[in-house]
Amino acid sequence: MDLRVQLAPKNRLGLTLGNPVMVASGTFGYGMEYAGVIDVQRLGAIVCKGTTLKPRPGNAEPRVAETASGMLNAIGLENPGVDALIRDIAPVWAEWRVPVIVNIAGESIDEYREVASRLDGVDGISGIEVNISCPNIEKGSVEFGTSPDLAAEVTEAVRNASSLPLMVKLTPNVTDIGVVAKAVVRAGADALTVCNTLRGMAVDIVRRRPVLGNICGGLSGPAIKPVALYLVYAVSKAVDVPIVGCGGISSATDAIEFIMAGASAVQVGTATFLDPRACLNILVGIEDFMARENILTLSEIVGQARA
Amino acid sequence: MFLLKCQVLSNEQLLPRTYLMWLEAPQVASSVRPGQFAMLRCHDDLVRVLRRPLSIHAVDGDRVAFLYRAIGAGTRWLANRRRGDEIDMLGPLGNGFSITGRSRRLLLLAGGIGLAPLKFLAESAASQGHQVVLLVGTRNTAEQYPIDLLPSHGHVVKITEDGSAGKKGLVTDFISEFAPEVDQAFACGPEGMYRELMRVRGSMQSVPVQVSLEVRMGCGIGACLSCTIRTNSGLKHVCKDGPVFDLDDIDWGAAPVCRI
Ligand SMILES: Cc1cc2nc3c(=O)[nH]c(=O)nc-3n(C[C@H](O)[C@H](O)[C@H](O)COP(=O)(O)OP(=O)(O)OC[C@H]3O[C@@H](n4cnc5c(N)ncnc54)[C@H](O)[C@@H]3O)c2cc1C
Ligand SMILES: Cc1cc2nc3c(=O)[nH]c(=O)nc-3n(C[C@H](O)[C@H](O)[C@H](O)COP(=O)(O)O)c2cc1C
Q1: What number does CATH give the domain A5-57+80-197+221-306?
Q2: Taking the CA of residue A88 as centre, how many other CA atoms within 13 Å lie in the half-sphere pointing to its CB?
Q3: Where are chain A's structural domains?
Q4: Which residue in A39, A162, A252, B181 has a CA-CA distance of 20 to 30 Å to B45?
Q5: Which residues of chain A approach chain B closer than 8 Å at the C-beta?
Q6: Given this model, what pLDDT does residue B249 score?
Q7: What is the pTM of this model?
Q8: pLDDT tens, residue by residue, B168-207
């Protein structure tokens, strides 16, 4: 049975995963945190917490709020900055078998470019995932990912700054995701992650205030699965690069749904909090399904539900 | 750190809205330190996507206990578990209290449900030969923890806000009476209690004080960065670097630290 996935077929370095089950940015730290609970080396890949040029302290507490079958988060990209990541964390990854992809974020095109260029050629880093759901501070704080032009500009800047395989993570908070997908693929994305969190909020009726310190946050978990699943389907009709499905995936059935809708691989996020073994259980469940259904290579079923 | 399914041995209401649950968890029982906590899964499906953090309240052989208030959907679900049911536990987590080498006399300050981790600390400290004074503060006598379940070899002082049992007032009102006599103090209670400790810090001389913080958590192991606080030594994560911190190390600032 062949579970391997190539996420960057046109990139010189390529990005080959041993299996399609990745863990999503911001839900798995830097990989070490869960290493005492599960065998992280069995994962298809690890995507680390969003990394910016300078260290960031993150948002005011509370940063998370549970909602029906989901949660809101507004962490505010707390991270030690790209230089500390390269100095202290990447050397650990360099010893690992599992590929690690660095998720990057920025407040300007220059910041994305600079972070990407510093990551280029660093041992232990197999790829870059660009989070474009960040406000563009120079241009009225509109999110890069909501404008096809800005999204393409970020992608192109990162593409030119680094030769690493390049994934772009799309935001679901748009009217037509296909247009954004096409723009970033034209600008050089090797693969697309679909999708990031949906914007939402919760109110504490006793205090009569928003629950989150940041007022609004990103909704994740099983509550968003049908939305993310449809977006994967829509993106896979619009472009011809590998897609990584993400959003509410908690079981092997969920993962296979995403694969049949057009994803070549999946990311598990919020489900890890409830069950740190979820990602590995999903992997085993996919293997069982393939054995049961006589599927020899995973690529046979990618997009099969698309008709 | 273990990820286990544990059998419920008992789960009874002990105080108003407050339950005492014993679980069979040999690996946790043999490795946990006072002040550490566990993340418990509080339902069988995907309706609630986060585990609930609860302090380890007591250890006895292969068993560990939690003392918890049923305040919301998750803890109410816990309260409905019966003997023989299974609970999914991730733990032990966090740093726990640390008694420094030279400390002989310890003062423990419990505000309300804050008694949860302090009973374990009192028992383990007393069994190691430390002198323990435990101040147990509650609103009224009905909320006072049964005295026969508290360590017998320590000195327990009951305090109630309404004066219906023991001394009348707040735990922090009695600091100046006990603090000069001790080498180290440990507190668990609401944030207001810690701020009051800061205010009367002068009357405690230089006694080091450790406090256990409560903030919202996602993962419990330092991966999601939900529970960040500011300290004098930089940003810290309550689940991994805490939940126990030096009172003086926390940046109390103007805004609440434990915003829940
Ligand atoms: C390290 C630590 C140890 C704790 N130990 C104990 C204990 O021993 N006994 C006890 O009764 N309580 C303890 N608490 C508080 C306990 O975690 C909450 O009461 C519980 O999570 C409430 O869950 P719920 O579903 O009943 O409430 P809901 O209000 O429905 O919970 C909604 C969300 O908010 C979170 N939340 C709500 N209140 C708190 C709170 N006070 N602290 C942290 N998160 C909260 C929940 O975990 C959940 O994610 C501890 C908290 C922490 C951080
Ligand atoms: C606590 C938390 C932190 C996150 N941090 C990031 C981040 O730094 N960068 C990013 O691109 N996505 C981040 N995400 C989004 C996830 O990677 C994922 O896209 C989203 O949660 C949907 O997947 P899920 O429903 O499986 O969690 C975060 C999500 C959560 C819950």
Answers
A1: 3.20.20.70
A2: 9
A3: 5-57+80-197+221-306
A4: A39
A5: 26-29, 33-34, 36-37, 49, 57-58, 60-66, 68-71, 73, 75, 78, 213, 221-222, 250, 270-277
A6: 95
A7: 0.96
A8: 999 999 998 888 889 999 999 999 999 999 998 888 878 9
